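Deliverable D4.2, example record:
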Amino acid sequence: MAVVGTGGSVILLSATRVAADVVNATLFVAHGVRVMIDGLVVPFVGFGSTADRLELPSGQLEVQTGDTVNVTITNNSTLPVGFFVQAAAGFAGVNAAPIPAGSTRTVTFTAPTRPGTHHYVGTVSGSVATGRALGATGPMVVLPREAARTSVDALFPGVRMRARRQPLFGVVPATALPAVVAQERTWLFGELNPSTAHDLAGGQVSLPSDPEPEYFLMNGLSGMLAIEDPFTNIHGRAGGLGQPGDATLVRMINTGRAPRSMHLHGNHFWILSHADTPWLVGAFKDTVRLPAGGAVDVLVPLERPPDAFPPVSRAQKYVVHDHIEMAQTASGGHYPSGMVSELIFD
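Output generated by the structure prediction step:
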């Protein structure tokens, strides 16, 4: 069965909490096609919440610390597909055996003991790298138990105590890292080479010598599609000069083979988590590096941009993009059709 994939970050609608500490979710695997920003149609193997709708990325699985998670997977593709979540501190990870084509199996695991951002992968043909390259990926968010998901202290204990930033204009005392999250975004980054995608969807396995990617995706979208997607761009009310507005938690997940270097105009990022370089936690930066296969959590304060002239606090737009210039292109150089979105102030 081949179905059309849809981009944009969504919640996994099939996930339900059946007890205080038990979550059940359903995923369907199928061959599908996705349409690139320039109209090229590319095959992939991916997940969906229903059998006839594949999602790019797959729906966000939300659990609480220590939950028992039951994921029932129906494999409607022609390839064996497993289920993988990378191990992390306080979490043994998941590496379920491949599910044969046409079969259904329930994968059960215990959620991490710490709040944080992870992602799951369908191991296509026994390979995690092949699953990532084909787009069989989705976010997994671990929330604190018995605490508000809007509390920075509950989500990232101790980070506000160590947060530091330079004084505004060098003299005006800087405001602290906001204590409350007003809204959330999840950015899942992926890469794609069309010829490799055809080979992998046909049963071959991803290799380190695979060609360089030609398409660069945020939540399965790129260019203007990612810019205009309300689940990808950051859209909210600005605060005053140096004062937070709709502080936005952004969970950035890199499923590609190369690191990313995400850059934000108009505001800076507060670094909330960074497993690759933990000494950056609490820093206030305009660019953050995402290691391949890793996740980084940041908070965008939505302050009135200090360089806006004449001074205004609304009706402004600023670009968000990867500082690795190649990733802002598509199909060998079409710009700006890659990992690009925007920050919009109401």
